[in-house]
Amino acid sequence: MARKASLSGFPEWLPQERLIELHVLDTLRRVFDLHGFSNIETRAVETVDQLLRKGEIDKEVYAVSRLQADEASASEAGLALHYDLTVPFARYVVENAGHLAFPFRRSQIQKCWRGERPQEGRAREFTQADIDVVGDGVLPFRYDVELALVVVEALGALPIPDFTLRVNNRKLAEGFYRGIGLTDTASVLRSIDKLEKIGAAKVGQLLREELGATDAQVDAAIALAAIRTPDTSFVAQVRALGVSDDLLEEGLTELEQVIAEASKRAPGRVVADLSIARGLDYYTGTVYETVLNGHESLGSICSGGRYDSLAAKGNRTFPGVGLSIGVTRIVSRILSQDFAAVSRQVPTAVLVTLADEDSWSAAQDVAASLRARGISAEVAATAEKFGKQIKFADRRGIPFVWFTGADGTHEVKDIRSGAQEAADPDLWTPPAEDLAPQVLRVP
Amino acid sequence: MARKASLSGFPEWLPQERLIELHVLDTLRRVFDLHGFSNIETRAVETVDQLLRKGEIDKEVYAVSRLQADEASASEAGLALHYDLTVPFARYVVENAGHLAFPFRRSQIQKCWRGERPQEGRAREFTQADIDVVGDGVLPFRYDVELALVVVEALGALPIPDFTLRVNNRKLAEGFYRGIGLTDTASVLRSIDKLEKIGAAKVGQLLREELGATDAQVDAAIALAAIRTPDTSFVAQVRALGVSDDLLEEGLTELEQVIAEASKRAPGRVVADLSIARGLDYYTGTVYETVLNGHESLGSICSGGRYDSLAAKGNRTFPGVGLSIGVTRIVSRILSQDFAAVSRQVPTAVLVTLADEDSWSAAQDVAASLRARGISAEVAATAEKFGKQIKFADRRGIPFVWFTGADGTHEVKDIRSGAQEAADPDLWTPPAEDLAPQVLRVP
Question: Which EC number(s) does UniProt give (chains A, B) (predicted)?
Fold first, then answer.
């Protein structure tokens, strides 16, 4: 499970690997459906203007153009592949606002493209699974709590090690920095975002050099970022730093609500982490990041936040909150670390053998009876010796072979145990665990 | 259901339209799984060389490049979005031959891109659903019969009008043309391919002018293309034209096998149609096209054929046979003609209401109990008056609302009928037809 992609950064899976990816995708979709999210897709391309307005680094964007431009392709000038699903979703909401019922709960699971340097967990073509709730004008804060719980449930259903959803709040951080006299809060956030990578000393140096921060300001900012609690005790810890600011209070109250509910409903999996900054400018309140415990270097597997004005139409705004799960990042790690195994490589449960070349049509009848009851079946293509037909099934991982005698009697053989029994094509059913390939967590 | 895409040729669906598309995609995947096809995906990009080698018109191809090229992006020069799934699959087979069990049965459902002039049924971004069987060196002819039956079953499970799978055989056509002395069979095929569009007279003119065909040759070629039978009687009709050729005989035998079995297993849905040529050069035997009856102008909704040497690795070849279903073409027609309706617009079956703001967490417990039994549920975000909460559900198409009294008793109301009854969150289940949105064929 460590083949090299023929084009760096564009992973492709073998059929048995794809079964694991499908299991991840199906699981996420099922959880999103159970929570009432409407699935949509958006086109793969956006205008370059639309993409760059949200502040992404432009060299990471893949432009799209006709190989041979002509007059008909002029309307397509300035198109590029989307690098996430949030920006396209914001456009979709604005364009279709008249057709949607707000608050609009949507899930979206699609490929994205970014020209980043490939490494494990960072592909150039990758699948994201997003959920967002968007309101018309207002959106109750409660959705910030709910969405954290939905992704915890979704990630908890995947064959991965335990994980930690780290939550912070932009208002809390910005209010605190303002309260200690650092008014360029965006720049402070950018420096604090580097804490895990370069350490407190270098972040302090950045704050001093770039923002002219005093030692006291640096100490306070770094003390805030050091706070991490699995419960609401962070509130007291922040208060102990002695900073007072209205926005800080608002942020504290919001984050307290998220952590209070989450620590009750998903104990141990959600923590307040006041170092989380998130690079993107459009977040305005709650921000989320998620790490796989013991695999922190993989980076965040699920991130997001609250944005108050990503989408706007005239003076109408559509505030939202959402999270994005990095499906390809997760699947790559499942495959490279063998977190999961699949019970067989093909969907087929039964190979219907051929006694002679003329029995192909009768064998199709048997297969059709099995399929009508949800049992995946295929018919041997040629009437080779039974030993060869069984070997064909074995090589592909098909667990059962079916024999029809000249007298019309049927038998089915489990080629793993060798057990063979009489069977009726309209009645026989394999054990539940053999009905379809099973993806199992490896302990 | 006739909104205009904001970017011509790049359709996007509303949530209720997407439910119909998802139904189509899920149905196809289920049928493919039941027939033992392993699902895979390939990357969206191929090298331009790889794409153009297969003879596509280059101006239809979308090139991909970094918006700001740098040294790191040099390895990506000459990339383009795939325009179908056959060419990428051929590459995948060659690259992964050592990891696949042959004959390899694969399904692949993905987006493709072509810069064609947009019209209904012809988008620039569209989804194809392909099945192919590929052998290592050899591939029994029987798969040509089987794959026709699989797509007939798959299309028959969709909410569309009846359809006709038209089958021809390149060997039959080429042998016949050779037999009447027209040796540039590729050129004859190209002219015959235009029959439906420009008529017999103009095709005859083309054959005379471009290939120097005699009147007798033109008459014979057009007589062959006029043969269309729902059974194997085409064999006698071809023989009556008095042409003799080995390749013709081989083609007749092959096509007879397909039609004999198909007319038995899928009566009326598969016909021998000797005018079918298929534009692509790589087909070497059976060719398929499918039209929706009464919607022939939409073009083919499912096409394909046998190819003997699309994929090769040194002197090893991987012959295959496959068909490609035009999902976007089908879904566009379902939506524009209202062939199908969806029972509701959201996955949610139950809205759990809030009696007061403090009951949110208890309401989440109710919702969690429902979800644990597969019932999609969401919780109201704010404790507005019940009338407003019911209106919220009604506007989104959620059929049931749940009430929890101060005494801990539960009631559930069907807001369509107004019927309200006591209910236990661990036991209550909606009628089966209300569990999830149902996509129904409109009679």
Answer: 6.1.1.21
Contact flag B125-A374 (C-beta cutoff 8 Å) = no
Taking the CA of residue B293 and the nearest CA in chain A, the distance in Å comes to: 26
- State how far residue A131 is from chain B, nearest Cα, in angstroms: 14
CB pair distance less than 8 Å for A38 and B345: yes
State CA A440 to chain mean position distance. 19
What chain B holds in terms of domains, given with CATH numbers, is 15-161+294-342 (3.30.930.10), 350-441 (3.40.50.800)
For residue A1, pLDDT beyond 50: no
Say if residue A174's pLDDT is above 80: yes
- ipTM for the predicted complex comes to 0.95
Query: What is the spatial distance between Cα B174 and Cα B177, in angstroms, rounded to a whole number?
Result: 5
User: Nearest CB to A66: which of B67, B115, B374?
Assistant: B115
pLDDT band for position B73 (cuts 50, 70, 90): low
Enumerate the residues of chain B whose CB falls inside 8 A of the CB of residue A15. 38-40, 100, 106
- What are the Cα distances from residue A98, in Å, to A22, A46, A298, A438, B4? 34, 21, 41, 43, 14
Q: Do A59 and B66 touch (CB under 8 A)?
A: yes
- Tell me the residue type at A434: D
CB of A277 closer than 8 Å to CB of A267: no
Secondary structure class of B172 (helix, strand, coil): helix
- Contact (CB<8Å) B34/A376: yes
A274 CA: distance to closest CA in chain B (Å): 25
B92 is known to lie in a ligand binding site: no
Q: How many CA atoms lie within 13 A of A375 on its CB side?
A: 27
Annotated binding site of A: 84-86, 114, 128, 132, 278, 282-283
**Among A28-32, A47-51, A266-270, A403-407, which stretch is predicted with the lowest mean pLDDT?**
A47-51
**Residue B398 predicted with pLDDT over 50:** yes
Give tens-digit pLDDT for B193-223: 888 889 999 999 999 999 999 999 999 999 9
In this prediction, residue B6 carries a pLDDT of 87
